[in-house]
Amino acid sequence: MNPRRLAVPVIALALAVTLTACTDGGIVTTTPSPTLATTAPSATPSASPSLGPLTDAELLALMPPEAALDDVRGAVATAKFFLEQYPVVYETGDLRVWDALSMPDCVFCESVRSDVVATFADGDYVTGGLITIDETRIEANYFPDDGYTYVTLPTDVSPSTVHHADGSTSPGTKGGAGSTSFRMSFNGSTWTVVGVGTERDS
Predict the structure, then answer these.
(1) Is residue 91 part of a domain?
(2) DSSP assignment letter at 105
(3) Domain contains 3
(4) Which residues contact 55 (CB under 8 A, 6 or more apart)?
(5) Is residue 134 part of a domain?
(6) Could you tell me if 76 and 140 are in contact, meaning their C-beta atoms sit under 8 angstroms apart?
(7) Can you point out the beta strands (E) in the chain?
(8) Would you say residue 82 has pLDDT above 80?
């Protein structure tokens, strides 16, 4: 069992910007600049999914209607949906939605993908790690100078359990409160994740 699977990857976002606060549909549109350690994927195994990649239409059919909007509401809906996929990919090994929403240069996205592939290659899977989002403290803003929308989701994560091929189990992540920040880009029909940063409350 690889011990790195017991911790959520922490990836830095370069948020060297100061945004003006405003509101949109109850979403506070300020973007904090978290100070996070930067890591890179330790391996890049190639997955061999039995089904092909999702089209934009297939992806949108799985997502809430707001995800199709080309403003901060669409970015927030997509970020929430993407974050909800985190425990799903570790339990099922199905990375099609994760891949469809991830930009190729998203280090966090690739780190999770590599870890999921390695987990299932070992015959393991993970349950738990469910993520609750505090809807009252979501922050988001579009920054015209770089063309990205930044979203921060306050979260509370439940503990997870690793299930091994021999039927035994071991503790996974402890869970806890924190936040996840996203750099999002709209490609004309769907939002995609360019970068992800995580922070845990002390």
Answers:
(1) yes
(2) T
(3) no
(4) none
(5) yes
(6) yes
(7) 23-24, 27-28, 125-128, 131-133, 139-143, 148-157, 160-163, 169-171, 176-186, 191-200
(8) yes
